[in-house]
Design brief:
By secondary structure, the chain is α/β, with parallel strands linked by helices. The chain has 7 helices and 8 strands, in the order E-E-H-E-H-E-H-H-E-E-H-E-H-E-H. It is 38% helix and 20% strand.
Length: 200
């Protein structure tokens, strides 16, 4: 039996991004992009668990690569699964804070959101009372060995937030000076590749 590397993309990403990681593994590993459809964490929990139950029986070891919200969805869905190690790139680790910040930008109060249930913002995101309630009632519990890559200029998590989270789950944390939430420049991708080779 082979081993599997499952790649979980971020928002507006693609399962095809998994191809980038094939260079790091020999023929004993199959690198698979998970083309999930979920937009909300309660959907992800069901879809991710079903997918992993299907995948687990076909492979020996499973490694997980999660990017941004893909990492968040993975952590709230897969903590009980047989995953040997996880590598998270710019994971969203405090979704409540992300939502509260979006509410601040739009000048929306909790009371208003609770009454209206859904508010469309000027920057194209929808604020949902159900989403905020869900993340508060379902905190991340993650006990799988993990490595985290974080960009110093990440606009989704502060360095304090990611550091506290990494300590809490006993993950090793690498911070790229001047890195962003989305690792996409030549320099950032080179840093990511170098980090990845060290942590797998």
């Amino acid at each position: 039996m082979k081993n599997a590397v499952i790649y979980v993309h971020g928002k507006d990403g693609s399962a095809n991004e998994a191809n980038h990681y094939k260079q790091f593994f020999n023929e004993d590993y199959e690198v698979i992009g998970f083309d999930y459809k979920s937009k909300f964490p309660w959907q992800a929990k069901e879809e991710f668990q079903k997918y992993f139950d299907f995948v687990v029986i076909k492979y020996n070891d499973i490694l997980l690569i999660g990017n941004s919200i893909g990492a968040y969805f993975s952590m709230i869905s897969l903590s009980g699964k047989q995953i040997k190690k996880a590598m998270f790139i710019s994971p969203i680790v405090d979704m409540e804070n992300v939502i509260l910040n979006m509410m601040k930008w739009e000048n929306v109060s909790e009371e208003e959101l609770e009454v209206k249930k859904i508010i469309n913002t000027s920057f194209g995101e929808s604020l949902l009372w159900e989403y905020l309630s869900y993340v508060r009632n379902n905190p991340i519990t993650w006990n799988i060995p993990s490595s985290i890559l974080y960009g110093e200029k990440d606009n989704m998590n502060s360095l304090d937030t990611i550091s506290i989270f990494a300590d809490k789950i006993n993950a090793d944390l690498t911070v790229m000076e001047n890195g962003e939430h989305w690792f996409h420049t030549e320099e950032q991708l080179a840093f990511l590749d170098n980090w990845f080779q060290k942590v797998i």
